[in-house]
Amino acid sequence: MSSERQLKPSGSPSLSADRGTEADDHDTTDARAVIRFDDVSVTYRGGVQALRNVDLRVDDGEFVVVVGLSGAGKSTLLRALNGLVPATSGSITIDGTEVVGAGAAELRVIRSQIGMIFQTFNLVHRTSVLNNVLMGRLSAVPAWRSTLGLWPSAEREAALQALERVGIVEKAYVRASNLSGGQQQRVGIARALAQEPAVMLADEPVAALDPVTSRQVMGDLLRINREMGITTLVNLHFLDLAREFGRRLVGLRDGEVVFDGDISDVTDDTFQEIYGRAITDDDLLTVDAEPAG
Ligand SMILES: Nc1ncnc2c1ncn2[C@@H]1O[C@H](COP(=O)(O)OP(=O)(O)OP(=O)(O)O)[C@@H](O)[C@H]1O
Ligand SMILES: [Mg+2]
Description:
Layout: E1 33-43, E2 49-59, E3 63-67, H1 74-81, E4 89-94, E5 97-98, H2 104-112, E6 114-117, H3 129-134, H4 143-148, H5 153-165, H6 181-194, E7 199-203, H7 211-228, E8 231-235, H8 239-245, E9 248-253, E10 256-262, H9 268-275
Parallel strand pairs: 3-8, 3-9, 6-7, 7-8
Antiparallel strand pairs: 1-2, 1-4, 4-5, 9-10
Bound molecules: adenosine-5'-triphosphate and magnesium ion.
């Protein structure tokens, strides 16, 4: 079933500079591959095959947007990467470490290298913004310190710096529940940053936000990727947002990678192929209020 798997445009030599000068995205050398899926399939109990023979390689510092219809397997891709969902077959590595078949202790190490950003932010609402960000440092300090709230000053400093990166350091001592949605997502990003992760994974990070805030948060993610070189994978369902912020686009359809290429090669037809249907206003974050005709 591998015919027609890649809709990848032929002869697309002008990939953006951040992907390296010899931009052969299926280069066989492994030197810079931070994420690698080799022939990965995931079948859930009950029989749904959520990923089918996925091959994907993401190099150090890349910013990749993943799109696909609801149910296409976007979340499964991220969950397989952090070992939350076991791959049924194939190999997944992060920075060379195999995720598939890893034991609990190994998974803890792997997950400490992955900053996760969630659609619903996953903050602890009744505590301060700073404490939420410090959660990102949990694996870096002895448990008794974090339990007693006796964070070393260097840890507090690191957390404050992460808040500064996302422009809300002045909210450090505010209760998380008192922030707006966009501010809460920035705390989520700061918490992930505080981990000093090798990889940032964001599963529909702006789905709960309004259009203006969505763009700001996507802008934060892209800026952090640029400034700090953290390899980033973002699942999005708004195609205009994917086009605006994506650099490399991966399209999933029914568990298969059906597109993998530079965003500048993406046309409306590409999105239609990925979705297997015409694109509607619901697929766009911002719908122009132009009168028809
Ligand atoms: N825990 C689970 N058990 C069984 N089937 C699952 C489970 N999680 C996901 N699935 C199924 O696997 C397929 C892929 O789901 P997944 O959540 O990865 O899609 P998605 O692209 O993230 O969709 P959405 O855009 O709605 O978030 C779907 O058919 C879904 O119903
Ligand atoms: Mg999902």
